[in-house]
Amino acid sequence: MTKVFVDTDVCLDLLSGRKPFNKAAEILFSLADSGKIKIYVSSLSFANIDYVLRSQYSTAHSRQIIGQFKTIVNVLPVDSKTIDLAVASDFNDFEDAIQYSCAIENNLTTIVTRNIKDYKKATIKVMTPETFIAIPN
């Protein structure tokens, strides 16, 4: 089964309905919901997701959305080693460095993000949701 690390931006596309990006995110996450792929996200993503969703929804509604979302993803920890790897990385954006380090530390070989340019120094595959869903899984 294909395993993929999904960056926070794609999660937010799905959960906040950001048009036009939500369509590809919906397809991507439906692949996970139907058991065709396994999606991994970092624990850091949940704090970022809640922060954004609370600008759209009440706290209770945001938590409900996050609770449902958690049932279709696998949550990876951000620990001391993850932070050490991010600090030592050449990434300009520290949040992206944490996400990348989390994927690397958990032996994932693909990151799905709309933010391709911030992953230029990645040594694993980095692709947009549109590119990923075009590949037969």
Tell me the distance between the termini.
8 Å
What oligomeric assembly is this protein in? single chain
Helix content: 40-55%
Q: What's the CATH topology label?
A: Rossmann fold
Question: If you compute it from the alpha carbons, what radius of gyration comes out, rounded to the nearest whole angstrom?
Answer: 14 Å
Instruction: Give me the CATH architecture, please.
Output: 3-Layer(aba) Sandwich
Average pLDDT, to the nearest integer?
96
- Give the low-pLDDT segments: none
Give me the CATH superfamily: 5'-nuclease
Strand count, sense and closure of the main sheet? 5 strands, parallel
How many domain units? 1
Order of helices and strands: EHHEHHEHHEEH
CATH class (first level) name = Alpha Beta
Number of H/I helices = 7
Question: Can you offer a commentary on this structure?
Answer:
The protein is α/β, with parallel strands linked by helices and 137 residues long. 52% of the residues lie in helices and 15% in strands. The chain has 7 helices and 5 strands. The chain has helices at residues 8-16, 22-33, 43-53, 59-70, 80-88, 94-105, 129-134; strands spanning 2-6, 37-42, 74-76, 110-112, 125-127. The longest helix has 12 residues, at 22-33. The radius of gyration is 14 Å and the shape is globular. The N and C termini lie close together (8 Å). The relative contact order is 0.20.
Short description:
52% of the residues lie in helices and 15% in strands. It is an alpha/beta fold. The longest helix has 12 residues.
Structural key phrases:
five-stranded parallel sheet, 137 residues, 52% helix, globular, alpha/beta
